[in-house]
Every structure is written in C-alpha cells, then in structure tokens.
Design brief:
Blueprint lengths: L2 H5 L19 H18 E11 L3 E5 L4 E8 L6 E3 L4 E3 L4 E5 L5 E5 L4 E11 L12 E4 L4 H14 L5 H22 L1 H8 L5 H9 L7 H6 L5 H12 L3 H17 L6 H7 L5 H12 L3 H5 L5
Antiparallel strand pairs: 1-8, 2-7, 3-6, 3-8, 4-5, 4-7, 6-9
C-alpha cells in the first residue's frame, strides 16, 4: 500500500477497548441470547455471497463498504497486525475471525506474513433495514473453522472465486456460523434491530426494488399512508435519522455496489442513478465514503 495511506492512520487505540466478542454472562444465558437472536435472523434474512479473496495484503489504510465482510486469519507474521474501528482493536492472530459490518469504517494495520480469507456478502431482510449496518466490528477465535477456510482458500486459488458449488456451500456455512457468534454478542440488540422500522416495510421494499430511483420525501410518505410532515416526524422518531438522510445513505450504498459490477464506469453509474454529471456524483459519493468513487473501488479487493 502507498505511504499516503500510512500517513492517515491514527494513534494506537487504547488497550482498554474490547478485543473479542465473548459474552460476559454465563454460558446458558449467552446461549439463550444467541439462539433467540439467531433464530429471528435466520427466519428473516437472506445471505447473498459476493466475492471471496485469499492471500496476503500488507499496509495501513481505511475501508468502509456497503456490504458485510468476514476475515479469517490463516497465518500471521512475527509482528501482529490489527483491525480497528471506533469500538475495538482486534489482533490478527491465526484462527481469528472478524465480522466487518456494512457501513462501518475499519482501520487496517496489516503486517507482512499475514494470510487471510475474506468473504464479501450481502444481508437482506425483506421490508427491514439491515440490522448490522453501522454496528460495531465483532471478532473471536475458533480452531474448528480453520479447515473450512483453508478449503475455501484452496478453491479460490484453483478457480479464482465463488464459481464452484463446493466453494459456495462452504462459504455460506462459514458465514452463517460466524453470524451465530455475532448474534450471541449482539443478543437483544440484534432482536430489537430486526423489528426496527416495521411500520415502514412497504417503503423499504420499494427502495430495495428500485435502488436507482430518486424518491422525494413526499413520495416516501405515500408508501405508509401519511402526510409528509407526519411521516418525517415518525420516521425520525423510530429510525433516528430523517427520511432524506436515510434515503441518501441507501442510495449511496446502491451506487457503490453498482461500481463493483463488471465493466462499470464512474460516469455510467452517475448517469444510471440520475446525478446528471460525474462531478456531482463524485462529490455525493465522497460525502458518504470519504473517497472519490475510483479510489474507493480500488480498495474492494480486501
């Protein structure tokens, strides 16, 4: 990675921050919390795999993706690297798994000798916002998943990605297993997140079905049979942001995903999402992701 990325790195995060997702409660309570939240998630969610990458990436940089990622560390060098967010700093030691939620800024400090498997995937809930979006990074350690991720890495090297059914099945199983651990850590917060925004289910579905549309607040209000003012107040009360802020963020994520499609260009995505010109789109994109579209896309191999 370039020296410019290294210069943007902040000072070391205090050691007092969490370094794993181990639940503090007793085993039976933690198991109940995990099962309740995970059962609700499994009943409502769909997992769509994006890409899988394996190998060594070295350097210091930041990333914030519209999709979720899972890291699994197969090997690390003598100098331990870290992944950090505003809530945790997790050492990249062998057999460590890390869940990187969509929309969360992650700081990478990756040292020579690190070998990881990275799985990109989307979590979609019909008529609900993604309960993991912007949530804290989670991590833990398990020896049991090492053979699975080693096999995924071998298949990735042989075939170049998720184009073989065995790789897909292994990756899907690994994702759901780790989401089970995340559900244990999130507990009631995840269950609450799954119910959040139930009153706006028709709106969420409409936006998901037409990601390139540019809905006004008045148009959004019609999906829930409210006037614009009443809708704005209720939406802000339940979702914590204004409808326009929520929609612009959702639109930015859809545009970011479109940039990753084969053959996509910045100008083409700008036109597709109705931005009029590439400059306006780039300015909009930078506000949401901190980087211009072309530079952001270069980071999506991790």
């Amino acid at each position: 990675m370039s020296d410019d990325r290294a210069k943007t790195m902040p000072k070391a995060t205090p050691a007092a921050l969490r370094t794993s997702c181990d639940a503090p409660e007793g085993k039976s309570d933690a198991t109940r919390r995990r099962n309740d939240a995970f059962a609700a998630l499994a009943a409502m969610a769909r997992i769509d795999l994006g890409s899988v990458y394996s190998g060594e990436w070295v350097g210091n940089w930041r990333s914030r993706m519209p999709f979720a990622r899972i890291f699994f560390v197969l090997a690390s060098g003598p100098e331990t690297g870290f992944l950090s967010d505003s809530n945790a700093r997790i050492p990249l030691r062998p057999n460590t798994w890390i869940f990187l939620p969509p929309g969360r800024e992650i700081i990478h400090e990756q040292r020579p000798g690190l070998n990881v498997v990275s799985i990109h995937f989307h979590i979609t809930l019909r008529g609900r916002p993604n309960p993991f979006f912007g949530r804290p990074m989670r991590g833990g350690s398990t020896h049991e998943l090492r053979p699975v991720f080693s096999a995924i890495a071998g298949m990735d090297a042989a075939s170049g990605g998720l184009d073989r059914l065995p790789t897909v099945f292994l990756a899907q199983g690994a994702v759901w297993t780790i989401l089970g651990h995340v559900a244990e850590a999130e507990g009631p917060a995840l269950a609450d997140g799954l119910e959040r925004g139930a009153a706006f289910a028709r709106l969420f579905e409409a936006v998901d079905n037409a990601p390139e549309g540019n809905f006004s607040v008045a148009e959004m209000a019609k999906f829930v049979y409210l006037g614009e003012s009443a809708f704005t107040k209720r939406f802000h009360a339940e979702m914590g942001v204004s409808p326009r802020t929520w929609f612009n963020d959702r639109r930015a994520r859809a545009a970011a995903e479109a940039l990753l499609e084969p053959g996509a260009t910045v100008a083409g995505v700008a036109e597709r999402f109705g931005f009029g010109n590439e400059f306006y789109f780039s300015r909009f994109f930078r506000r949401h992701f901190g980087l211009p579209p072309s530079q952001w896309r270069n980071q999506c191999h991790i």
